[in-house]
Amino acid sequence: MFGLIGHLTSLEHAQSVAKELGYPEYADQGLEFWCMAPPQIVDTITVTSVTGQTIQGKYVESCFLPEMLASHRFKAASRKIINAMSHAQKHGINITALGGFSSIIFEKFNLQQIKQIRNVTLELKRFTTGNTHTAYIICRQVEQASQQVGIDLSKATVAVCGATGDIGSAVCRWLDTRTNVAELLLVARDQERLQGLQAELGRGQILSLEEALPLADIIIWVASMPKGVEIDPAVLKQPCLMIDGGYPKNLATQIQFPGVHVLNGGIVEHSLDIDWRIMQIVNMSIPTRQLFACFAESMLLEFEQWYTNFSWGRNQITVENMDKIGEVSVKHGFQPLLL
Amino acid sequence: MPQLEVSPEIDFHSETYRDAYSRINAIVIEGEQEAHENYIQLTELLPEHKDELIRLSKMEGRHKKGFEACGRNLKVTPDLDFAQKFFANLHHNFQEAAAEDRVVTCLLIQSLIIECFAIAAYNIYIPVADDFARKITEGVVKDEYTHLNFGEEWLKANFAEVKEELEAANRQNLPIVWRMLSQVEDDARTLGMEKEALVEDFMIQYGEALSNIGFTTRDIMRMSAYGISGS
Questions:
Q1: Which of A114, A329, B83, B217 has its CA 20 to 30 A from that of B70?
Q2: Comparing C-alpha atoms, which of A3, A167, A165, A1 is closest to residue A97?
Q3: ipTM of this complex
Q4: Is A71 in CB contact (< 8 Å) with chain B?
Q5: DSSP-based three-state secondary structure for B218
Q6: How many A×B Cβ pairs under 8 Å?
Q7: Which of residues 105-144 of B touch A (CB under 8 A)?
Q8: DSSP letter string over A164-217?
Q9: SS3 of B37, please?
C-alpha cells in the first residue's frame, strides 16, 4: 500500500473542492477551521503498471493550506503535516510521499525532532519526499523539451532558480554530469550555499535572478514559495524554455509571450489510466494520467517494494539514485510531461 | 504533540498561572470523577459487562487522585464548583439518557466525547506541564491507550442498530464540547495550550473512534465538525 499526503492550493480552492465533493461542513469554513481540521483519507487509488502489476494506495488530505504559511501560522502548518504522517502510518501505509509543501514544511520546521505523535512513534522510513523522482523528471523534461523548441543543449545557457534546494541541487548535478549543457547559472538566496554548490560542481556562475533571466535559454524554476514572483517575459531570450518545477505552479498563467515556452515541471504522465478522483481537483489537464512526480515516486517504491525513505533530508540526491528511480519510472510506464 | 517553537518559559508558581490552573485542574479532576461515576452507572444498563465497567471506574478514580496531587504540588485549590458547572450540560444529558435506558447516548457521552476530550487535552498538556504533572499525565495517557476502549468496542459490535442514535447523540452533544473548549480558551492558553491544537487533537481522537465503530470518512467529517462554526 502506498500513500500520498497532499493539500489544496488555497482556501478558496479548498472550499470549492469541499463543496464539489459534498462536504458542506468543510465548504463553509474559513482558515480558522482548516487550522483545526484533522487529516482524512479521502481517496483510494488503484494503479496498474505497464508490466501488468497492480497496486493500491490512499490519498491523505492533510488540510494544510498555503495561507497558513503566508499568515505565519507555522504551528498549525506543522501540525497538519505531522498529523497527516501519523494518520498514514496508523493506516498501515508502507510508503507515503509528502506532496506539495509537505516536505518543505517538514524540513523547514525541523519536524524530524518530533518522534512521538500521540500513541504513534513515527517511522520515517515509511515516508519519502519524492524529490529524487521529481529531479529526474525535470532533467528529462529539459533534455526532451529543449529539442521540441529547437534549443541545442550543447550551446545552451541553463539557469536553475532555487539551485541550492534539494531538487535544484540534484538538477544541477545531473545537468553537469549527464548532459553537455554549455553554461550553468546558479540562482538562490543563500550565498554561502551557492558557493558550496559551485565548489561541488566545479562550475556554474552565481547570479541574481534579474541578471540570470536575460541570459538563459532554459530557465528551471524549482523554488517554492507561498507567493510567486513576477517575471517580465520581455527580458527573456527567444526562444526560451521555462520549466516550472516550483510549487505552486503559476508561471504558465503568468507568462504568455511569443517564443517563451512554459512547461509544468516535475509532472509525469502514466501510460495507463489511474483510478482516482483526487487529481481531477488539482487542475491537471489529463487527470487520469498526469500527476506530480513526487507522488509517482511512492508508487514506484510500492511497485518495487523498496520500503525505504528513498528521498530524504536535504541535498542528498545523487545522480546514481536518479538513474535508479528513472529506470523503474520507465519500466512501469511513467513519462515526463512535454510541450 | 510537542510544540514547534520553544515556548516562553512558564512560571508555574505565578499567580496568573496558578489562577488558571485552579480551573483547568478542577476540570480534569471533575472529568475523571464524572467518568468514574458514569462507568458505575453504566453497570445498571449493561449488567453483563459489570466487571469490566467497575475496573474502568476504578481506573478513572486513580487518575482523579493523580490529578489532585498535581494541584497540591503547585499549592492550588481546584475550583470544583466551576468544574461542575463546566460539565453540567454533558452530565445532564448523560443522566437523562441513563434514566431512559438510552445506553448508546450514554456511551457516546462517556466513551467517545469525555474520553477523547481528556486524551486530547492530556496530549497537548504534556509538553507544557511542570515536571510532576507531566509524569502523572503521561501515566494516565498510557493507561488510556493501553486499555481497550470498552464503549468503542460495544458500539462497533452493535453498529447497525446504534448508528442512528449515535448520530442524534452527536448532534445533541458535540456543540456542547465546542462551547466547553471556548469557555476555557484563555485559561488553557495561560497554561501553554492552544485552542486550535486542542480542537484538532479532539477531532483526531473522535474521528478515529467513529472510524473504529464503523462510520465512513464522509460520516466522520460530517459528524466530527458538527456545530463547530457556532463555537
A1: A114
A2: A3
A3: 0.88
A4: no
A5: helix
A6: 73
A7: 119, 123
A8: TSHHHHHHHHHHHHHS--SEEEEE-S-HHHHHHHHHHHT--EE--HHHHGGG-S
A9: helix
